[in-house]
Amino acid sequence: MTAFAVVRTQSLFATAMLSGVFSLLSALLLVTLDAVDVAFTEAAVGAGISTVLMLGTLALTSRFERPPSHSPVIPLFVVLVTGAALVYGTLDMPNFGDPNAPAQTHVAPDYIGRSPHEIDVPNIVTAILASYRGFDTLGETAVVFTAGVGVLLLISGLRRRRRKEKEDV
Amino acid sequence: MVEEAVRDWEFFLGHMNYWLFIVLMMTGFYIVVAKGNLVKKIVGLNIFQTSVFMFYISIGKVEGGTAPIFPVDMNIDPAVVYSNPLPHVLILTAIVVGVATTSLGLALIVRIREEYGSIEEDEILKIEKEIALQEIRLHSEVMGERG
C-alpha cells in the first residue's frame, strides 16, 4: 500500500507523487464499487489537481523533511486505540453488499424509482446531485468559492511583499 | 457447528472492507499526529479523507448491482439492480470540498514558510516561543518604567 510508503519516506517530492498514486488506486477501487462518477472526480481532482497544488507548494517551500524529534509511541498508541474503537463500531454494521441494509432500503429506491419520470436523465447520480440535492451542491460551490478567495488573499500578498523587498534592496 | 463457522466466515468477509478502510484511515491519522512536516500532515489528511470516501461508497454497494446509470434510451429493465446512488452524490460533493480545503491548507503553509522560514512544526513552535518571550520582556520593561 502506497499509504505506508508515505509514512516512511523523507523526500516530500516522493510524498507528493505517492499521494497521486494513492488517489489513482483509490479511483480504481471506486470503479469496482460501482461509483464511476466518484472515481472520475477522484482521478481528476485527487490525482490531478491535488498533486499539482502539492508540487507548487514544494516549489515555494523546502523539498525535504527533517527526521522527527520526538518518539512515535504516543501517537501510535492514540491511533491504535481509535482504530480499535472504530472496529468495535463496525461489528454491528450490515455485511458488505447486503441489499437489505438500512442504507439501501430508506430513500435510495425512491430516488432510483422516481428519477426516470421526474428528471429523465440517464445518470441517477447527476439527477440527484443537480436536482434533489441541489442545495448541497449550492453549498459546495459556496465552500469552493470561499476557499478560492482565501487562497488568493494568502498568495497575492506574497507577490506584493516580494516586490517591496526587492525595491528596498 | 458447520453452519456457525460459515456464518462467522461470512461475517468476517462482509466486514473486511470496513476494517481495511479503518486501517487506511488510521494510517492517515498517524501521519497527521506523528509527523512534524506540515506538507506531510496535509497528505495524511488526504489519505484519511479518501478512506472515509471509500468507506461511504462501500456502504452504498449492493451485491450484484451495477453503476447507477440508466440505458440511454431510458428503457429501464426492472430486474437490473443498481447500487445506491446517494453516497456517490454525497462523496462527489465531499471530494470537491476536500480539494478546496487542501488548497487552502497548502496556501497557509506557503505563508507560514514565508513568515517563519520553516515548515517543521517544532521549529515553528520554538520561534513562536521566542517571540512570546520577547513580548513579555518588552511588556515588563514598559510597565517597570511606569512603576
Automatic annotation (TrEMBL), chain B:
Q: Which UniProt keywords apply?
A: Cell membrane, Membrane, Transmembrane, Transmembrane helix
Q: Transmembrane segments in this chain: where?
A: 16-33, 42-59, 89-110
Provide the membrane topology annotation: Multi-pass membrane protein
By its UniProt entry, which Pfam families does this protein fall under?
A: Oxidored_q2
Q: Which domain of life is it from?
A: Bacteria
Major location category of this protein: membrane
Q: Which family is annotated? A: Belongs to the CPA3 antiporters (TC 2.A.63) subunit C family.
Q: Which NCBIfam families match?
A: PRK07375.1-6, PRK07375.2-3
Indicate what this protein is called per its UniProt record.
Cation:proton antiporter subunit C
The organism that produces this protein has a lineage beginning with: Bacteria, Pseudomonadati, Pseudomonadota, Alphaproteobacteria, Rhodobacterales
